[in-house]
C-alpha cells in the first residue's frame, strides 16, 4: 500500500512544472479553501447555540418563571453571525474556484502543448509501433481526464482533509469520549477504501488502455470504410468493433462496480456511529455534561467527517481513471526522442544536389533491410529506384529524409553527412510527391501554397499549369477558392495527386522525390504529366520510385534493389543489354500488359 501511495505521489508531482507558472492563482485557491472550511466548521457550533438558547427559554417558560419567554433578540444576533459565516463560505468558494480553474486550465493547456511537441519529436519508429487512435486518445481523452480530476477532485480532497482536521478538533472541545468513539469512522473507512482501490486500480488501467484500443480501432475502420464495403467486410468490421467494445465494457463494469461499493460501506459505518453517539449523547445531556445544542453540533460534525470520506468514495472512480490517464500521458512524454541534432549543425550555403550512399546499413529490429549499399548520384541526375516489394525502395527514401537514421555507413549531400545537418534544414531541400496523397481541409489555393507559404498567386497558378491541373481547377464552382472537405473526397484521387504535384513544383526543391506520383491518373494525363515533370526535373536531382518500369526509360540512372542490396545500376538500355534482373522485371511487366 505504501509503495502504491508513493508511486501515486510521484505521478502527481510530475505535474509540478506545469502548475508552477500559475502558483499564485493555485496558492490563492488553497487559501480560499482554508478560509471557507474554517467558516464551515464554525457553523454547527453557532447553529447549536440557537438550539441551546431555545431549549433554555422553553425550560424557563415551562417552569412558569416570571418574565420568561423566547429571547428573539439573542437568536437574531446569532442568526446574523450565521449569515455572515455562510456568506464568507460562499464567497471563498466562488473566488477559490475561479483561481483554481484559471491555474488548472492553463496548466492543462501547457500539458497538451508539451504532449503535442513531444509527439513532434518522436521518431517515425514510434508511430509505426503504435496505433494512431491510441496516440490521439493520449493527447485528447487522457489529458481531459486529468483536467477533470484536478478541477473537480483536487479542491475537494484539500477541503476534505481540512474539514476532517477541524471537525475532529471541534468534537474534542465538546466531549472527548464521544470524539474518540466518532473518529473510529476514519480508520474503518480507510480500510474499506484500501480494499476497494486495490481491487479496482488494475481495472481502471485496463479501462483506459481499452479506450485507447477502441479509438484506434474506430480510426482504422472509418479510415478504410470504402475498402470495407468493397471487400464485403462489414460483418468482420462489426465483429472487430464489438470485440474491442466488449473488452472495454468488461473492464469498465468491474472498475465502476467495485469502486461504487465504497460509498454505501462508508455510509453504513457513519450511520452506526451516529446511532451510538445519539444514545450516549442523550445521557450526557441528561447528566448536564453537555447542552442539547452541543449534541446537535456534535452530530453535525460527524456528518462533516462523513462528507469528505464519502467524497473520496465518489471521486475514487475519477481519481483512479486520472492516475491511469496520467501514467499513459507520461509514457509518451518519457519516450526516447529522435537522435539529437548535431551541435553546431552544418548548413549548406549553395546546394548542388550530389548524393552519396556510403556503405549504408539499416534494419527494422532484427530484420535487415539495407546492407552495405553504395551509390553516387551526381547533381541534376534522375535516379529511378526499382525492385520487388520489400526490396528497400521506400526505406532508402526514409533514410535519405532522416525519418530513420542509418545504423552503419553514411548518406551525404554535397559531401556533408546528413546527420551533421538539422533535420529541418535537410528536409527543406526536398520536395516529395507520394502515391498516398495528403490534402487538408481548406481551399485548393491554400493546399497548393502549402509548398511555399510566401508564394504569390501568379506563382501558384503557374505551378498548377505545369502540373496540368489549372484547367480542372477553373471548371470548379469557385475555382482556386473551392473548399476541400475534411475527408478530401469531393475531388478524385487523380486530381488530388495533381494538386500535390503542383505543391511540389511550387516549392521548387533542390532534390525531388516521386513515389509513383502518376499512379492515380489515366494514361493520356500521365503522358502530359510526364512531359511537364520532365521540365520540372531539369537541373535538379530527383529520385523516382517506379513500379511501372515503362515510365523511367529516360532516367539517368536506374538502381535495381533486391533484398536490400543494389543488384544492378545503369541506364535502361545498358541494363536491358545485360539481360539480368532488371530485364526480367521489365519483360514480366510487358508480358503482363500484353496478356
Automatic annotation (TrEMBL):
Listed Pfam families: ABC_membrane (PF00664), ABC_tran (PF00005)
Coiled coil: 316-343
Name this polypeptide is given: ABC transporter ATP-binding protein/permease
Keyword vocabulary terms for this entry: ATP-binding, Coiled coil, Membrane, Nucleotide-binding, Transmembrane, Transmembrane helix
Subcellular location: Cell membrane
Ranges for domain ABC transporter: 355-588
Membrane topology: Multi-pass membrane protein
InterPro entries in the record: AAA+_ATPase (IPR003593), ABC1_TM_dom (IPR011527), ABC1_TM_sf (IPR036640), ABC_transporter-like_ATP-bd (IPR003439), ABC_transporter-like_CS (IPR017871), P-loop_NTPase (IPR027417), Type_1_exporter (IPR039421)
One GO molecular-function entry: ATP binding
